[in-house]
Amino acid sequence: MTLRQAQAPVGPGGGQPTTDPHGEVTVERVELSAELAGGEGRAASADVAEYALWLGDDALILSQQLGAWIARAPELEEDVALANIALDLLGHARSFLRYAGTYDDRSEDDLAYWRDEPEFRSAWLFEQPNGDFAQTIARQLAASVYLFELYTALQGSSDVTLAAIAAKAVKEVEYHRDHAVQWTLRLAGGTDESRRRMIRAVGDVWPYVAELFRDEPLIDRLDGVAVRPSTLQPAFDAVIAAVFAEAELEFPTGPTSSAGGRNGHHFSTLGFLLAEMQVLARQHPGATW
Amino acid sequence: MVMLRQAQRPVGAARQPVGAARQPAGTQRPVAADAATRRAWQAAASVLDPEVPVLTIEDLGVLRDVQVVADESGEARRVTVTITPTYSGCPAMDAIRDDVMLALTAAGFDDVDVRLVLAPAWTTDWMTDAGKRKLVDYGIAPPNGRAAVAGPIRVQLSVRCPRCGSLDTRELARFGSTSCKALYECRACLEPFDHFKVH
Prior knowledge:
The complex is a heterodimer of chains A (289) and B (199). Chain A has 289 residues and is mainly α. Chain A contains 11 helices and no strands. Chain B has 199 residues and is α/β, with parallel strands linked by helices. Chain B is built from 4 helices and 8 strands, in the order βααββαβαββββ. Chain B has a 4-stranded mixed β-sheet with strand order 1-2-3-4. Chain B has a 4-stranded mixed β-sheet with strand order 5-8-7-6. In chain B, helix 1 (35-45) crosses helix 3. The A-B interface holds A 34-38, 77, 80-81, 83-85, 87-92, 94-95, 148, 152, 155-156, 160, 163-165, 167-172, 174-175, 177-179, 181, 185, 239, 242-243, 246 and B 1-10, 14, 85, 87-91, 115-122, 172-177, 179, 183, 199.
């Protein structure tokens, strides 16, 4: 692989000259909002970009975590399944981050590799460690049921770009949800050991579910554009209740985490995850391959 | 039995561009009024999917729209090709974009713009019958149902083995070698094979 160093920074067309946050780097500007159907070339507003970061970061962090399972899953089919799910999530993240970047002329790579921990907006559920396979499945169950309800509702957003990304993503998240439900039933109804681990995993993950349904002030400013998180909780609870009933699992009754991902306060794992995810891009700024 | 709600397709009609070749919802090739657009469509339609190199992007339904705009002298020059990804994370899209560029440049169009759209979201219902036949010949079972009629109860039709034609097959894994495929095995000839998921 040869690495080509960028010759000169390229500023946004016709805009103010920008101070490049990472030296001599060529950022290939992608007019994504013009590319997405109905986007009509409109850039995201500050608030819409912030909301797109919420969604993009959730998908990006979960994708990065699932990638760590490749070659380590309990069976070959599961290596393939988790890799496929990670790839779908990365696709969703790229779409949301590109759209977020239209607000201040940052590329998807700028947002993924050149922001530091406090600038990320992911919720703590997605930052929970992989743990054992049961813990990953418990996290997948909560994440995919939530994302399915979120994207189903977001298809009706008045923001055509967000609606288009959601319509595409919801079909894919449906497979992810199916996968997580099947494994939850299998582990909870399997051996004594798999059941013990599944019960423990649900208890470990569930304190971080509440954050997903918290209505931040940003939501009040995005009426009709964003989905109000609290409205998703009844459908989420109904699906989870059905799965838990069949798996003979109890709803955990422990305390919920105060969390704070939407405000840049993160779980202790995120710094380590970002260090690994960002190290190559930061060692070779501007490299293309 | 856990009953899960199916993804609903949103209601909304795509806007029709004026004077262009647009892949119809069906599976026949659109007919453009002018020769330049027909030539441009044919050039774009010749691009193969790098991951299933027997299928063209037209067969797949990835090629959505070709528009040709004349310059001042009346020469048909500027071409805008619209493609849509099969799955959000499909890594073939960048290669397809480059290949479309090359194909149109080779066909004599020097100003080519390839646009990626997400809406309306791609579905296997757009795959052509020719494409499905090519898949079988290649050893991949084609989509065997219509995504548009997926209701609250999904009927899992038997998937026909592309090698021996048996319907005695079973799904080994929902996720396969690419986003769009699942892994099956045939219980008659005992061979594994890929199935292009109804999506």
